[in-house]
Amino acid sequence: MAIVLFPVEVLEYIAEYAMPEDFESFSMTCKSFHAGGGKFREKHNLLKKRYRHFKYDERQFPWYKDVEAYATREKGDILCISPHQLLLQICEEPLIARYIITADFNLRDEFRGKERSIVLEQLELSSVLPELMESLPWVKAGQAGLFEVKDCLIQEYQYVDNFDQGLRQSYVLATTVLLTLLPNVIELVVNARDHTLFYHDVNSEYGPRIITIAWELLWSIVHTANEDNSLAASLCKLDSLTLDTHRYDGLLGFLEATPLLYMERLKSFHMANITTSGHEYMSNAWKDYEMPATANFGANLQTAIFHRIRCSDSELGEFLSKLSQLRKLELLDLDYLREHDYRGPICQDYVSAIENSAREKLEEVSLVFGIAISSRNGERGSISFTSFQKLKSLTLNFDVFFIPWKGSIWLQHDVYELSDESEEEMEFSLINTEVTRPTTAEATTAEGSDRGYTLTAILDNPELESVTKSHLLSERLPTTIQNVTIRVNGLLTCAKALKCFLTDMDQDKSEQLPRLNSITLQNEATNGMLPSMLESMAKEQREALTWLSSCDKIRWTDDMGGDVSTTLEDILMAQNASNYELGETSSWLS
């Protein structure tokens, strides 16, 4: 019988017990159901608003930026400050678990005192919590007693008042229990320290048992989600996983990161603020732990993003070699290498590791180094991507291509951060020559006034001309490349990048790069000064900027990601309207 023919009483009964996703689907497609479920619609919308994109409420923490946010919160908001409290809310209203679509369980702090005492009392008095615990897969299998799990969850929370020791163990278990209840979660963020083999206080009273229970529960989740075809298992729809610590203290091995990396439907993995240190920091309780023989690591993982991590190139290569479906890789702010006795990664080593492990499958690559040394052998422009067979999009620092190895400097472990070093040091490393300091009248550009150098001194330097002509970007890219984005810092670097690209694009590259659609210069350190910077450049390099504004293959974005072509055209038009006299044009385009 069609649902539209059901009596109103039946429709109300269906609406009351319908799953959130079914309720919404029926309400949008059936007028009769929409009318019959009217009194339940307010509850549905309220739960959806509160829990669909779940994140712990941090507004009462002293470090929270907006001190008035808590006082001005919307009426009816439910303060959720811990995984224990969310568990209690789900015990009271089980449908909450099905409303959560994106879950950020990375708790950066915890409440002590009155708030924690209230939650603890609610945990002890809850009549539903034992039933929830009894439904856990590992408890069902008889591998852990119900009261043992409850004791680990509550007692550790009650007696230990140190978030970095025993108290965290209780948070680990509570979060893991939550992960067994979420069938509709697509995006998940968890604390890396909580869901790895590392950084656990196995010396606390319940520590070893909590690690065992949590770890086995995670494997139960993975196994059930991978085997269950009904799409009813917890995390069976998980598409994106993020491991974060919010600070540099996570100790994590790539392949032992978390059982969740073995989820077969997982397509995107984001790792942030992590130190990877192999096995030497692994908890003693897990040194002999073996992964299940049937585990399929990263079976369908297509995107891997690493933000502010510290790892060796060998670890990175080992990780990438396991991902057969990898298509997109991002390394952002990679600035530390433990194995070497100096600070700063060798870009060439990482490019080689990526090339050896993933050159046949990667289509998008982003390499943004906080501190960059381009190569070991001292040859300018030695990094090449020509062996990447499917590469379509490339993003990297301008400095990676054009800052050479200076043996006398690097051997002294004197590595410069490119955005902070003086113009004299940067210019020496770029063209190994001195430049002319400007007069006060000439120091009109954003960086010129701070650094003391003019654009003309850089752009007209004949040695820079020979460098850009002998090491063209087009000669180091594969024929499959479609889009190239170069990240530059400040006006001076923009000018250098501009000259390099103008020299490159001045040649006929239709045969070498037949699919190239665009080259984007992304300026990330203008601090809102881009219009004045462009105006200053237009006075000296008007012909070049006029050509740039009309070039269909080069875009220039500001630090906010906006296209500045309109700004550039407006500046040029304004100068035309004021009868700006060009004077003698620089010959740097010839």
Structure description:
The protein has 590 residues and is an alpha/beta fold. Among the domains are: 1-51, no CATH class; 423-577, no CATH class. It contains 24 helices and 14 strands. The protein has helices at 8-17, 20-29, 31-36, 38-51, 83-92, 96-99, 114-125, 129-134, 137-140, 146-159, 166-179, 207-227, 313-321, 347-358, 398-402, 407-410, 423-431, 446-451, 455-459, 462-470, 490-505, 530-540, 542-550, 565-577, and strands spanning 53-55, 102-104, 187-191, 240-244, 250-252, 268-272, 274-276, 303-307, 328-334, 364-369, 393-397, 483-488, 518-523, 554-557. The strands form two sheets. It has a twelve-stranded parallel β-sheet. It has a two-stranded parallel sheet with strand order 5-7. The C terminus is likely disordered.
Would you kindly provide a brief summary of this structure?
With 590 residues, the chain is α/β, with parallel strands linked by helices. It has helices spanning 8-17, 20-29, 31-36, 38-51, 83-92, 96-99, 114-125, 129-134, 137-140, 146-159, 166-179, 207-227, 313-321, 347-358, 398-402, 407-410, 423-431, 446-451, 455-459, 462-470, 490-505, 530-540, 542-550, 565-577, and strands at residues 53-55, 102-104, 187-191, 240-244, 250-252, 268-272, 274-276, 303-307, 328-334, 364-369, 393-397, 483-488, 518-523, 554-557. This is F-box domain-containing protein.
Task: State the main characteristics.
590 residues; alpha/beta; twelve-stranded parallel β-sheet; two-stranded parallel ribbon; 24 helices; 14 strands; disordered C terminus
